[in-house]
């Protein structure tokens, strides 16, 4: 007794959580409410017309066999009218259903993508690409199905069941209310299994994401997998992920089969009991024989909508899991406030100057930077060097305002970075990362990301400055495809595309993350000279490990354990043990 009570409470709690997640997302679909209402009304009328055709046809047949001379002209007119209504509303249903589906899918995907864009990049840390892609694509598609198919079906289930039961009761008396029992049982049974549905839904989404991630790794990591002889191993990972998905799907299908079998059994039992009772009444002369087949048909039809609803409820676990995942993204806290803070002090004599004033920053209470002071003025470049984990990239992320410091303040152009809208502020910057991301498309499309309305002449000039114009010409020009993630280009070529982007952007501040890391040594000196030209007149930060990149800078800051341990020119720092340890045997090269 206690166990059953606990299960009921658990079912109610899980159901409330799923409904809450789905209702939160439904609130974003208010623009579609009018169209949704119209589409649902059309669906109800279409189903009623379809049912009316079956009922009237059966009544005509029964009446004809009972009395071949019966006047059936009115019924034939009614039947023809129902066929016309059915055809027209079937067409309207298809049209409106697709329209509302596309609108809902658009709203869900735009909302999800906007949230991803809002919290990136900090909010996406520790999240797999497959997780994000699944939420933005497959989860939104699943929810579109819920809002455009399942929800209208639930509404028409309630309306149609009431109408059919009312007509049945009008025909045969209070005994027609008997079919309410199988209706209730059909709906209650899936409700009892909601906790199982929830677990299976979450497991299904998670295993599908694992499978997508495994396949993505297998496709994108072919070069590494083959060079390491791990192709077979990765194939086994994909197979294992596929088997886990299949196992979850089998359990899901078994549960649904049990739910449908129970619904079928209850419906059949109710119809048989009603048939026995009505047949006895016909034999006793208490009921017109022509009404018997119509009554049995209506009895079945009154339960079928509940049967459809029960089938839909069997997927509530999947829908709830999708809604939960998307809501996590939508409700994620904005790591960087977009609204500029008002009333901040403007520091003078800091035009286009980046200042880190006693900066401190921690990841999950783990200190990364502490008491860092830095000033980078225009026409001056500063290289930040240090061992892995010293805080170099964190400092660059603070400068880009991908992060906000826990202590101290970052200023640019005399104003605390909190005083800028982050996107407006970043329009004044340009980042050349060590691993430059190339988007699927053409070289032109990748370079046009740097600046709207840029001319071909400007693009070619930037390519020449990045020493990649000749290669682009050999590939077929600016409209040459570069493949997904720039797979047709080498690492050095991708980095030179990134440098060309920076030339096109013409920023106030330039952040270079090991700009010569993947560059051929034969091109290194030439590109280094062009990078010096690029940073001319600009505030420049260079995150560096290699001596060639370090020498681009005018001033060098050495980080260790989150603090500045040395700074100066390359020549001056040759007497510093921290600096010499970082460079290692590069000094002798």
Automatic annotation (TrEMBL):
It is a multi-pass membrane protein. The chain crosses the membrane at residues 33-60, 72-96, 150-171, 177-196, 257-279, 291-310. Its main location: membrane. One of its GO terms (molecular function) is ATP binding. PROSITE patterns: ABC_TM1F, ABC_TRANSPORTER_1, ABC_TRANSPORTER_2. It holds the Pfam family ABC_membrane. SMART domains: AAA. Residues 38-318 form the ABC transmembrane type-1 domain. One of its GO terms (cellular component) is plasma membrane. Residues 354-586 form the ABC transporter domain. It is found in: Cell membrane. SUPFAM superfamilies: ABC transporter transmembrane region, P-loop containing nucleoside triphosphate hydrolases. Keywords: ATP-binding, Cell membrane, Membrane, Nucleotide-binding, Transmembrane, Transmembrane helix, Transport. Belongs to the ABC transporter superfamily. Lipid exporter (TC 3.A.1.106) family. PANTHER family: ATP-BINDING CASSETTE SUB-FAMILY B MEMBER 10, MITOCHONDRIAL, ATP-DEPENDENT PERMEASE MDL1, MITOCHONDRIAL. This is ABC transporter ATP-binding protein.
């Amino acid at each position: 007794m206690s166990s059953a009570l606990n299960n009921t409470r658990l079912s109610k709690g899980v159901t409330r959580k799923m409904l809450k997640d789905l209702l939160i997302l439904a609130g974003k679909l208010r623009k579609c409410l009018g169209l949704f209402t119209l589409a649902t009304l059309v669906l109800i009328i279409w189903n009623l017309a379809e049912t009316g055709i079956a009922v009237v046809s059966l009544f005509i047949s029964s009446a004809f066999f009972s009395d071949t001379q019966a006047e059936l002209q009115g019924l034939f007119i009614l039947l023809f009218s129902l066929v016309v209504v059915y055809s027209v509303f079937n067409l309207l249903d298809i049209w409106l259903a697709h329209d509302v589906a596309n609108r809902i899918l658009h709203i869900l995907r735009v909302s999800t993508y906007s949230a991803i864009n809002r919290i990136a990049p900090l909010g996406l840390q520790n999240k797999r690409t497959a997780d994000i892609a699944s939420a933005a694509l497959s989860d939104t598609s699943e929810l579109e199905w819920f809002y455009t198919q399942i929800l209208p079906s639930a509404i028409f289930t309630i309306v149609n069941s009431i109408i059919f039961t009312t007509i049945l009761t009008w025909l045969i008396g209070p005994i027609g209310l008997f079919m309410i029992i199988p209706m209730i049982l059909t709906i209650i049974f899936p409700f009892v299994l909601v906790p199982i549905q929830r677990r299976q839904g979450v497991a299904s989404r998670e295993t599908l994401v694992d499978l997508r991630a495994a396949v993505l790794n297998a496709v994108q990591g072919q070069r590494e997998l083959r060079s390491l002889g791990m192709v077979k191993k990765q194939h086994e990972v994909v197979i294992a992920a596929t088997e886990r998905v299949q196992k979850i799907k089998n359990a899901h299908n078994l549960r649904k089969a049990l739910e449908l079998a129970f619904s079928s059994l209850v419906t059949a039992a109710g119809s048989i009991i009603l048939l026995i009772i009505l047949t006895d009444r016909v034999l006793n002369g208490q009921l017109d024989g022509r009404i018997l087949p119509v009554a049995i048909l209506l009895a079945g039809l009154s339960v079928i909508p509940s049967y459809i609803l029960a089938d839909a409820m069997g997927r509530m676990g999947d829908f709830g899991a999708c809604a939960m995942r998307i809501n996590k993204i939508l409700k994620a806290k904005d790591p960087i406030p977009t609204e500029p803070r008002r009333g901040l002090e403007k520091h003078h004599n800091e035009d286009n100057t980046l200042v880190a004033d006693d900066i401190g920053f921690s990841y999950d209470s783990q200190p990364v930077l502490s008491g860092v002071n830095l000033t980078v003025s225009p026409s001056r470049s500063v290289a930040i060097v240090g061992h892995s984990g010293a805080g170099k990239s964190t400092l660059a992320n603070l400068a880009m305002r991908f992060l906000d410091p826990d202590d101290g303040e970052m200023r640019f152009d005399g104003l605390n970075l909190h005083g800028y809208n982050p996107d407006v502020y970043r329009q004044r910057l340009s980042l050349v990362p060590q691993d430059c991301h190339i988007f699927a498309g053409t070289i032109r499309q990748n370079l046009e990301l740097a600046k709207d309305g840029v001319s071909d002449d400007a693009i070619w000039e930037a390519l020449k400055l990045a020493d990649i114009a000749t290669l682009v010409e050999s590939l077929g020009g600016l409209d040459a495809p570069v493949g997904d993630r720039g797979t047709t280009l080498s690492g050095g070529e991708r980095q030179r595309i990134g440098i060309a982007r920076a030339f096109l952007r013409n920023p106030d501040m330039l952040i270079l993350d090991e700009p010569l890391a993947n560059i051929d040594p034969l091109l290194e000196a030439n590109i280094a000279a062009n990078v010096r030209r690029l940073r001319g007149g600009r505030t420049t930060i260079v995150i560096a490990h290699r001596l060639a990149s370090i020498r681009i800078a005018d001033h060098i800051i050495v980080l260790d354990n989150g603090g500045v341990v040395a700074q100066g020119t390359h020549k001056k720092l040759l007497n510093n043990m921290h600096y010499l340890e970082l460079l290692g045997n590069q000094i002798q090269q």
